[in-house]
Write a structure and sequence with these properties.
The complex is a heterodimer of chains A (275) and B (385). By secondary structure, chain A is an all-alpha fold. Helix content of chain A is 79%, strand content 0%. Chain B folds into two domains: 2-222, P-loop containing nucleotide triphosphate hydrolases (Rossmann fold), CATH 3.40.50.300; 223-373, Beta Barrel (OB fold (Dihydrolipoamide Acetyltransferase, E2P)). Chain B is globular. The chains are: A mainly alpha (275), B alpha+beta (385).
Chain lengths: 275, 385
């Protein structure tokens, strides 16, 4: 590190410094202007706070929080052992599964929604058996949660897998030679060491779940109080009440900033590599 | 104590290992990288399943392929120290040392940790995290952590490899005194000859998964009887020579080849043969032998030393002078290059430079005969339980 810092002290001419500066400025304005405009317009609304506690906004907020919380719980409970297996196993079958985990990341969310309808819809593959059991998934709150899990879980699984991979198996081996069972070793060594990555994955996953729109509207619809989460409520409100749309947008931006801040703190807490 | 034997196959690599260590004894596994040293340790610790074998740790059988017994690692009571230490980065020094004491009462565990911190001179560092420690401190914490739960055997895998030369000597001495107090049997893996000599009560030389030689470290490392072992342990001078004459009354013979003529012990490599066999040379019947001499067994002089008991006096020109810590290595051309280990002070005093004419002096008994085939290994493996 000392060498690198030392090198940085000598300022070297960077190729295309002017071009880079211009590009940076353009980029900052491009990203910053809409966000600034949104905050500016929201601040100008006289009825900002009344909109905040107005029925539709509050209902959407509550639904988003509840569904995303349940999604995160499921993702953590299922995703953690899954990610650990992916990190530790060398079986070719799991390599394939590993590649498939990334699919929802690059798949258009609307397509995910259509796919889920084809699986769980009334005329879907599992539609008839589910109906026999008296279970209807499409256009219910459960569908919102399923859609969120579908699109958001890869963020957690991928990050957790990398986290587990970064924990040297040597640490686990040493723990076992010290008389600690494999299960305790997982809880006392592996999990704490991978925790920053797991939390990073959770934050990204939550951000993705809360912003989920395409799969939700296809598979769960846009029913106030039942499936209308904040992004859907924003779209609906744009037609009737700009106030509500703006206040929900501001809240989602604040949520994103909170996630960014949490990620920054987590990044600094990463366990330092051993010498 | 620990003893046993294992046969492990990892990919196409075959390992045959066998060992027996008494309490308070240090057995060194010596060999190049890839010889199977670490595999042996991992098999004993239960981190790797052997194909066949029988492993005893303490007075318990922890693995036996015949009866299908294999205790999991956490029930074997082995202490394992790796060269990268693998301290837990999320725990401080105290908690690292006390990690294996979870089943102890908190007061007993606290007392044990305090005791080890004192013995290992880690006072004041209790709250430090591993990355805030020097390499030597990390090594002591790792040692303390391994010793804390009173293991029945301590497995040390190149514990000094990541330290520099100076620190190595210091910590070797420390490790030795710590181990002497604890009386725990130790299996130490190394490819450093100095380390093996300093710590070993007995030594095994292994290569490519096979035991080549075992015994007293001075014998095995000082005068190895086989060419492969001699190469592995770094015998500096190995000369292929022909027997010129035998002198049974002196117990020596004169060997020569390519301008070099030296007197060597007659029976150095055939200890078990009958007297009439002695006329037979060890390597083959046609009188060819390989003679080894350690660089440190040779005395260098600017003049011929007459009237001494040393049987070998060779004159040669200095071809190289190289730094070889802790001293220097001087190569003399005596027909064949002869490498001699000297101190820096001697180099200064005699003003040794390339091109100088010098005399090399060594006793016949410093020479030893080296044979090619690893007979010891075969005999040993055939005789396992």
């Amino acid at each position: 590190m000392a060498l690198v810092t030392g090198r940085r002290l000598i300022s070297q001419p960077t190729p295309g410094a002017g071009l880079g500066g211009a590009a940076t400025l353009l980029y900052v304005v491009f990203i910053g202007l809409p966000i600034g405009a949104l905050l500016f317009k929201a601040a100008q609304q006289e009825s900002f706070f009344s909109s905040l506690i107005s029925g539709p906004a509050l209902t959407a907020m509550r639904l988003s929080l509840v569904t995303s919380a349940i999604s995160m719980l499921v993702i953590v409970l299922v995703g953690t052992p899954f990610a650990y297996l992916l990190a530790r196993s060398r079986s070719p079958l799991l390599r394939l599964v590993d590649a498939l985990v990334e699919l929802p990341l690059v798949m258009p969310p609307v397509v995910a929604g259509v796919a889920m309808l084809m699986a769980f819809g009334r005329r879907g593959v599992l539609g008839a058996p589910l109906e026999d059991l008296g279970i209807t998934l499409p256009f219910t709150t459960a569908a919102v949660i399923l859609a969120q899990i579908f699109v958001a879980s890869p963020f957690f699984v991928r990050s957790a897998k990398v986290g587990f991979q970064s924990v040297a198996t040597d640490h686990e081996d040493i723990s076992r030679t010290l008389g600690v069972s494999p299960w305790s070793t997982f809880l006392r060594v592996t999990l704490p060491l991978a925790a920053p990555s797991l939390l990073t994955g959770l934050a990204l996953s939550w951000a993705r779940a809360v912003s989920e729109f395409g799969a939700t509207i296809m598979f769960a619809g846009n029913l106030t109080g039942k499936t209308q989460t904040m992004p859907l409520a924003i779209m609906s409100a744009m037609e009737t009440s700009l106030d509500t749309a703006l206040v929900l947008s501001v809240l989602l931006i604040l949520g994103s900033l909170a996630v960014l801040g949490a990620l920054g703190i987590l990044a600094r807490r990463h366990w330092q590599a051993e010498a | 104590m620990s003893r046993g034997w294992v046969h492990c196959r990892v990919g196409s690599f075959d390992l045959e290992a066998t060992w027996s260590i008494e309490p308070g004894e240090v057995l060194v596994l010596f060999g190049p990288s890839g010889a199977g040293k670490t595999t042996t340790l991992r098999a004993i610790a239960g981190l790797l399943q052997p194909q066949r074998g029988h492993i005893e740790v303490g007075n318990r059988v922890v693995y036996d392929s015949d009866s299908g017994l294999s205790l999991p690692t956490h029930r074997r009571r082995v202490g394992y120290l790796t060269q990268s230490y693998n301290l837990f980065p999320h725990l401080n020094v105290s908690k690292n040392i006390g990690y294996g004491l979870r089943n102890w009462t908190s007061s007993a565990a606290g007392e044990r940790v305090r005791q080890l911190i004192e013995v290992l001179r880690l006072d004041g560092l209790e709250q430090r995290r591993p990355w805030e420690l020097s390499g030597g401190q990390q090594q002591r914490v790792a040692l303390g952590r391994a010793l804390a739960p009173n293991p029945e055997v301590l497995l040390l895998d190149e514990p000094f490899a990541s330290l520099d030369m100076e620190l190595r000597r210091i910590f070797r001495r420390e490790l030795w005194s710590t181990l002497a107090e604890s009386n725990v049997p130790v299996l130490l893996v190394t490819h450093d000859r100095e380390e093996a000599l300093a710590l070993a009560d007995s030594i095994q030389v292994i290569d490519e998964g096979k035991l080549l030689a075992q015994g007293n470290p001075l014998d095995v490392l000082g005068q190895p009887g086989q060419e492969r072992v001699a190469n592995l342990v770094g015998v500096e001078n190995l000369f292929p020579l022909t027997i010129e004459s035998r002198n049974p009354r002196n117990g020596t013979m004169v060997c020569a080849g390519r301008g070099l003529r030296i007197e060597v012990p007659l029976d150095a490599s055939v200890p078990n043969s009958s007297p009439e066999d002695r006329s037979e040379t060890p390597a083959s019947g046609i009188g060819h032998v390989t003679v080894g001499i350690r660089a440190s067994d040779i005395i260098i002089s600017t003049q011929e030393i007459l009237g001494s008991t040393a049987r070998n006096r060779l004159q040669g020109v200095v071809t190289h002078v190289e730094l070889a810590p802790p001293g220097y290595e001087v190569t003399l051309d005596c027909g064949q290059p002869l490498r001699c280990q000297i101190t820096g002070a001697a180099l200064e005093e005699l003003k040794i430079r390339p091109g100088m004419d010098l005399w090399a002096v060594f006793k016949a008994s410093s020479c030893f005969l080296v044979q090619d085939a690893p007979l010891v290994a075969r005999r040993h493996i055939a005789g396992r339980p």
